[in-house]
Design a protein that fits this description.
13 helices, 322 residues, four-stranded antiparallel β-sheet, 7 strands, Serine Threonine Protein Phosphatase 5, Tetratricopeptide repeat, three-stranded mixed β-sheet, alpha+beta
Amino acid sequence: MKKQIFRSAAVLLIILAFTPAGWAQEGRGRGRLGGEVQGEDKNPIAGVKLTLEYLSYDYQMTDISDENGKWAFVGLGMGVVKISAEKEGYLTEGIQLTVSSVNRNPKQLIILKRIEDIKPESDEGGEVARDTFVKATALYKESRYEAALALFQDFRKQQPHLYQIAINIGNCLLELGRFEEAIKEFQAVADKITAENPEVRGNTELARIYASIGDTYMRQEKLKQAEEYFKKSIEIDPSDHALAYNVAEILFVAGKTDDAIKYYQLAIRIKPEWPKSYAQLGYAYLNKGDTKSAVENLKKFVELAPDSPEAPGVKEVIKSLE
């Protein structure tokens, strides 16, 4: 009996090391990620601020594109990251991907659109509309959501044909906790996209919108509706294992272990060679007391990523369980 108590305590301490507070030390490794920023004319853009941030823990890096539009981040650990590209006079753009600290990461191309290229319905008011959009975007970045919302709504009045502005409005409403209104805005864009192109498979814009609706329901703890829209998003863009993984992380932290396990398993089905899902699935099973499944998945993680920074800690967990 004493031996069993000792083992349980050891496991508890190791699990605590993998809670969100422990994630703050992650993000460092031997990985490298680079790419280029171009305009719609395919010419490189210099002086673009690139911000890389991990989605599962608190760690970020920045870089500035050179005269050839090139940028790079080095010393990266394994994980799902979001990269945003910003420069005055351009619409902010972002990408989301999984970074490997072991294998070579493919180069990433980011396309920025000039704000002045936003086409107004008529020449009258076009410059005013662009100025409104720029100010609204700046306010949103400063978390001044009420002010940003008012300006985005003004922009819509000035340029009603640009229906995608509803996404910006929806994001503001989401941050303000006006969930039903946010969903209405997101859904309006989704309906417009599907009306224009009923063949939705592979439409990443629509997939992101459904993910936003899922996030809106998630914030209200309406898990059934959230799962419905996250599944829609994944069905449209089945290559996005990061979406399934991130949903699982949210559910796991919220204590919804059974739901988290389903999404970790989905992430594994989408990209079975990605190690991180196996580790987190192992910890989810451990929380349920399913030691056999926990060890199986943790061993798979070590098999796929033996040199990762997390591997020594995972090996200790396995040792304590066996």
